[in-house]
Amino acid sequence: MTILARLKTETRAAHDRIEAAMDLDRRIASRDGYRDLLIRFYGFHKAWEENAAHKAPDRSFFERRRKTRLLVQDLEALGLKSEDIIRLPQCPPLIPLPAPEAVLGSMYVVEGSTLGGAIIARDVENRLGLNAETGCAYFRSYGRDIAAMWRSFGAVLLEASSPEVDDLIVESAQKTFDVMHDWLCETP
């Protein structure tokens, strides 16, 4: 079983748990609810990116996948000022990422979330009339390149995979799902 297949299998329950708890229909039913959802995503990504950047296996590979700037762009489009965004709460200390392989396991969750974001973006556009320029850049982060970005991530993950590190990769993904669930699904 490849590491990608193993991750999909072993994180399925965590994925289903967060998807059920997110209550996206309610959270994107209004601009205020949607803005609050983006604030939670901002708090997660800001903390996660700062934590993961130092251990990422390939700095440029990681940098192209950062989402915080897109969330800032969306929040500003929805009326927040830069000084307000800087003061937004961040996710509490994240899981330890002791090695580049742990970062890749954690990235599996974040990159998978990006795939789901394309579906959410369509709902946001239909319900709220927002697009990448008016408040939905985060969920449209890779645009038409989403499949290519996922494939390139998968290739890096497969290359890093080995019997010595695969447990660490899976454990990191599972813990990231837990942290993301607790942060995003907490009632602000």
TrEMBL record:
InterPro entries: Haem_Oase-like, Haem_Oase-like_multi-hlx. This is Biliverdin-producing heme oxygenase. Gene3D superfamilies: Heme oxygenase-like. CDD domains: HemeO-bac (cd19166). It comes from Microvirga arabica.
